[in-house]
From TrEMBL:
Pathway: Protein modification; protein glycosylation. The keyword DNA-binding does not apply. Keywords: Cytoplasm, Disulfide bond, Glycosyltransferase, Golgi apparatus, Manganese, Membrane, Metal-binding, Signal-anchor, Transferase, Transmembrane, Transmembrane helix. Its cofactor is Mn(2+). This is Alpha-1,3-mannosyl-glycoprotein 2-beta-N-acetylglucosaminyltransferase. It is found in: Cytoplasm, Perinuclear region; Golgi apparatus membrane. It comes from Nothobranchius furzeri (Turquoise killifish). Initiates complex N-linked carbohydrate formation. Essential for the conversion of high-mannose to hybrid and complex N-glycans. It catalyses: N(4)-(alpha-D-Man-(1->3)-[alpha-D-Man-(1->3)-[alpha-D-Man-(1->6)]-alpha-D-Man-(1->6)]-beta-D-Man-(1->4)-beta-D-GlcNAc-(1->4)-beta-D-GlcNAc)-L-asparaginyl-[protein] (N-glucan mannose isomer 5A1,2) + UDP-N-acetyl-alpha-D-glucosamine = N(4)-{beta-D-GlcNAc-(1->2)-alpha-D-Man-(1->3)-[alpha-D-Man-(1->3)-[alpha-D-Man-(1->6)]-alpha-D-Man-(1->6)]-beta-D-Man-(1->4)-beta-D-GlcNAc-(1->4)-beta-D-GlcNAc}-L-asparaginyl-[protein] + UDP + H(+). Pfam families: GNT-I. Belongs to the glycosyltransferase 13 family. GO terms for biological process: heart contraction; neuron projection morphogenesis; protein N-linked glycosylation; regulation of sarcomere organization; swimming behavior; thigmotaxis.
Length: 449
């Protein structure tokens, strides 16, 4: 393709040069303007055809002859201009063929804030604007559903610091009688679909980070996503980057290692980045409700993973919502928000690529000392700093161990929260612990959900 475009450009350039050479020869070889019979600018047909007047000496009017020549030159210049435009267009196509793709160093990563009727969206927007390093590289788009005027006024108060768009369809959605209480979930799914189509199709963006109006971000939130964008784009086994750790409570994370990042098979959400290519795959089959659990199904996940941090880069402050505070009082309110700025863009994050990550991860997990849960709970009998491994072999044993160790015990499509290759990694009383299946794990069992 590049050779073909190069040939077109060379041919066009040759024609341009040849045309100008012929024009120059034509003007040089033109007889001087003078007497009739000497070719002095008269064409067959004489003055009647060209409308040239002559003086008594038989000379053509010099001024009119110059005007005619000027008209001819203008026509030639117009032709050359068109030829130059063709050359430019081919050169642009050629340059595009040589361009290696998106700028991975400083990509534009829009932040999509999904809003409805919470005036506390101000808390989210204040932190986003406070920590945003560049309005050009991180434009903020607030997509509002519900038509709540007070929330709209709050969003509007930010002026050109954000772009405010409004979901036009506020009608109720017809659902089965037993799903009437879930009407909110249907509207959220409809809103997500509309908002993501706006970002990728109307605003022509290639990626986006989605946050909701009840999320507060960490100081290095933007640094985190900017550094992980090239990893997401280069590894086909990844389909998202999330700022969230489902087991991110203070007692379950290593507060001294804010730079730790992991792969996870569980879709975390709550501040996550996806590429346009993924949206083009998901949009045609986007569900009418419960979009996040739908994302966790094998048919959508297709064995792909996400990146997630040891310490969350988002926290939620929205206890009241369509989920009626589910998990909030027990888990979410205790999630630790990172406060240490980690310069991720200056670190080598290639260890997160599947080709490097899996071998190291499996070796670390299964070389860890195998202990009983009771030993971990007592703690006194464990002399080394770890890591330690607790092994589960069934859905029931996983749930028992998870509850006793303080990690979330629910599974979605057989995948535990934060799990990777069936392993849940967390801190327990100052030691790294892996809640893991037997060595040789091959796949998740959807019947465990």
């Amino acid at each position: 393709m590049v050779l073909k475009k190069s040939s077109v450009i060379l041919c066009s350039a040759f024609l341009f040069v040849a045309w100008n050479a012929l024009l120059l020869l034509y003007l040089w070889g033109r007889p001087p303007i003078g007497r009739l019979g000497e070719g002095g600018g008269a064409e067959p047909g004489g003055q009647e055809e060209w409308g040239l007047s002559r003086d008594r000496a038989g000379h053509s009017n010099l001024a009119e002859e110059m005007i005619r020549l000027a008209d001819e030159v203008e026509i030639q210049l117009d032709t050359q201009k068109k030829l130059l435009k063709q050359i430019e267009s081919h050169r642009a196509v050629w340059a595009q063929q040589k361009t290696p793709g998106p700028n991975l160093n400083k990509p534009t990563i829009p932040i999509l804030v999904i809003a409805c009727d919470r005036v506390t969206v101000k808390r989210s927007l204040d932190k986003l604007i406070q920590y945003r390093p560049s309005a050009e590289l991180f434009p903020i788009i607030v997509s509002q559903d519900c038509g709540h005027s007070e929330t709209a006024r709050v969003i509007g108060s930010y002026g050109n610091q954000v772009t405010h768009i409004r979901q036009p369809d506020l009608s109720d959605i017809r659902v089965r009688p037993e799903h009437r209480k879930f009407q909110g979930y249907y509207k959220i799914s409809r809103h997500y679909r509309w908002a993501l189509n706006q970002v990728f199709n109307t605003f022509s963006q290639s990626t986006v980070v989605i946050v909701e109006d009840d999320l507060e971000v960490a100081p290095d939130f933007f640094e985190y996503f900017r550094a992980l964008y090239p990893i997401l784009r280069s590894d086909a086994s990844l389909w998202c980057v999330s700022a969230w750790n489902d087991n991110g409570r203070d007692a379950l994370v290593d507060s001294s290692r804010a730079k730790l990042l992991y792969r996870t098979d569980f879709f975390p959400g709550l501040g996550w980045m996806l590429l346009k290519e993924l949206w083009e795959e998901l949009e045609p089959k986007w569900p009418s409700a419960f979009w996040d659990d739908w994302m966790r199904q094998p048919e959508q996940r297709k064995d792909r993973s996400c990146i997630r941090p040891e310490i969350s880069r988002t926290i939620t402050f929205g206890r009241k919502g369509v989920s009626l505070g589910q998990f909030f009082d027990q888990y979410l309110r205790y999630i630790k928000l990172n406060t240490e700025f980690v310069p991720f863009t200056k670190q080598n994050l290639s260890y997160l690529l599947k080709e490097h990550y899996d071998e190291t991860f499996v070796r670390e997990v299964y070389s860890a000392t195998l202990v009983k849960m009771e030993d971990l709970q007592k703690g006194g009998a464990l002399r080394s700093p770890g890591p330690y491994r607790v092994q589960y072999s069934s859905r029931d044993s996983f749930k028992v161990f998870a509850r006793n160790l303080g990690v979330m015990d629910d599974l979605k499509s057989g995948v535990p929260r934060t799990g990777y290759r069936g392993v849940v990694s967390f801190h327990h009383r100052g030691r790294r612990v892996f809640l893991a299946p037997p060595e040789g794990w091959t796949h998740y069992d959807v019947s465990w959900s």
